[in-house]
Amino acid sequence: MVQRRDVLALGLATLSARALTPAFAQSRYPERPIRLVIPFPPGGVYDAVGRPWAERMKTALGTIIVENQGGAGGSLGAATVARAQPDGYSLLLGGIGPLVINPIAASRTPYDPLKDLEAISILVVTAFSIAVHPSLPVQSLKELVDYARSNPGKLSYGSAGVGSGNHLTGELLKSLTGADIVHVPYRGAGLAITDLVGGQIPMIMANVTGQVIELHRSGKLRLLAVSSPDRLIAAPDIPSAGEAGLPGLISRNFIGVLAPARTPSAIVAQISQATQIAMADRELQQIFVASGLEPSPDSSPEQARRFLEEEIARWTPIIKAIGLKLD
Questions:
Q1: Per-residue pLDDT tens digits for 46-105
Q2: Which of 26, 45, 150, 187 is most buried, with most CB under 10 Å away?
Q3: Whole-number Cα distances in Å, 275 to 1, 43, 77
Q4: How far apart are CA 275 and CA 257, in angstroms?
Q5: If DSSP codes are grouped into helix, strand and coil, which group holds residue 303?
Q6: Which long-range contacts (CB under 8 A, 24 or more apart) does 318-322 make?
Q7: What letter would DSSP give residue 99?
């Protein structure tokens, strides 16, 4: 009997130890569908990233329900996830708006992107483009700057709205060149693109997307430069702003997966590993490249957090300098 009790005790101790190990914890996750909050309305670039990612993750994580929750420039959806239980069942698809611009430019934000959210992976990085109507007599970024300086206040650019990455890219261009260009905010990039093609506005700052690239190739608009450090895979014929004479014009949007802070490290590691496997799929990479996006297949939680920290540090002085207020 003593030996049997010893064996039982040893067995229970072994089970208890296993219950505390990450591997055992991971084997029980997930037990139900995971919610992926996209903090913008359906149909945009976030959907173009989040939905294919969610589909590829089914093998490793089971069903992922995509929930579009727009409002306040992405802050409502981000706050929802920041306040959710840190159990791995609520994830955020975040980017420059809700994670960088809004927390800096708003006097009160219901979350801190570094304290209340746990970065898991940067899925894609994309640049903004400087595009003009074909009737504008400029063929390069330098010619655009010269034209703007020669016609102060007469040139305007459209953006996806006040406080958007497009808006900040335009303001960064103005601050670097001293050009007097009027900002015309729209309620979404689609409307700005439509008005540019129709000739209602002469210029826009827009996310590089498959649509924008196609409009350039068909001659309906003219892409002068992209705001990434290097040329894009999807548009190798378009120079970077640095090549075009403005090395300081670096402005990138990024889209990544985050969880509520204090999500168990084993769950974060499991989602990260599954994401790296999914992002290694060449077919998925081609889907993103065709949309003008640069995949980040090797992003880790540490790299994702460092990327977010660097973007916040880089944009804070710029946003403060232009006096952007989102209240």
A1: 999 999 999 999 999 999 999 999 888 889 999 999 999 999 999 999 999 999 999 999
A2: 45
A3: 51, 22, 21
A4: 9
A5: helix
A6: 318/168, 318/171, 318/172, 318/175, 319/101, 319/104, 319/105, 319/168, 320/104, 321/175, 322/168, 322/171, 322/175
A7: I
